[in-house]
Amino acid sequence: MQYKVLKWLSYASCIIMLLVSFNGVVVTRTGSGLECGREFPLCHGKFVPGTTIGSLIEYTHRLTAGIAGILALITLIAFLVWARKRRDFQIYAIVMAFFVIVQAIMGALAVVFSQSPPIMALHFGFALIAFASALVLALSVRRAGNLERRPEPPAEHRMSKRTRNLTIFSAFFTYVVVYTGALVSHTQIAKMSLVLHIASALLLVLILLVGHMAIRDYGHISDIRKLGIIVIVLIMALPLSGMLNLVVLGSEYYMFAPMLHTLITDFLFAFLCFMSIRTWELSRIPAGQPTSVGVQETAQA
């Protein structure tokens, strides 16, 4: 019973974090950030906003972020109480709750006080980490449950340090590129835009390499193979969604393209984080040992 509660809490946290990201895109795209004035949590002195579209968009974003914060704290408490022997689960829940709360506070400060473009970009970056940690938690809990029912066969050999380090670096570099993109959108500096395009091209090559190595060298490890395929698909879709933004600019579909781009970005970074954790686990086990690291306590979590 406790495991089911933890599993569904992790799923719900992941979904609400994604909704927060979507709402943030809508607020930015419609310029609704100050439609409730420089007041928080009130909207023009009221708890219930006015009937203007802009105020409803901004208030919905605030409401979603508030729900995300409450759910993150509930999830954290549940994992601290019911998953005491799974330190990894608890760490993911702590990271998620911390960044959800921090980015919510930053959002409130951005309303009350004007913020510089780097800080606004960091607000998006923290939301990205919050979603990534929520997805890593959900995937880890799901994986642990699956391994309890169907243990994996031993791996032929452990993960090389080169593959591990390259995977971890790709996740870090993805965050840098995403933050740079958010900064460019807030500053519109031409030189930074050129740097962003160069960095994006390098990121494409890097993640294609990571995915290729995962499939070629570790295809016998089911989750590594699947993760390799997923990151290749996502990194190929990312520039296409970026071009779609330009195509639909000014049309009635202008809202959906950036939401799709955000969706792909969020999942790409999150899956790279999970892949980094799995490669780190596999690099630490002796050759021939089972790949199901750290799942022996799942039944008691």
TrEMBL record:
It holds the Pfam family COX15-CtaA. Pathway: Porphyrin-containing compound metabolism. The chain crosses the membrane at residues 9-27, 63-82, 89-113, 119-141, 166-188, 194-215, 227-247, 253-274. It is a multi-pass membrane protein. Keywords: Cell membrane, Disulfide bond, Heme biosynthesis, Iron, Membrane, Metal-binding, Oxidoreductase, Transmembrane, Transmembrane helix. It comes from the Bacteria. The keyword Ribonucleoprotein does not apply. It is found in: Membrane. This is Heme A synthase. It comes from Saccharibacillus kuerlensis.
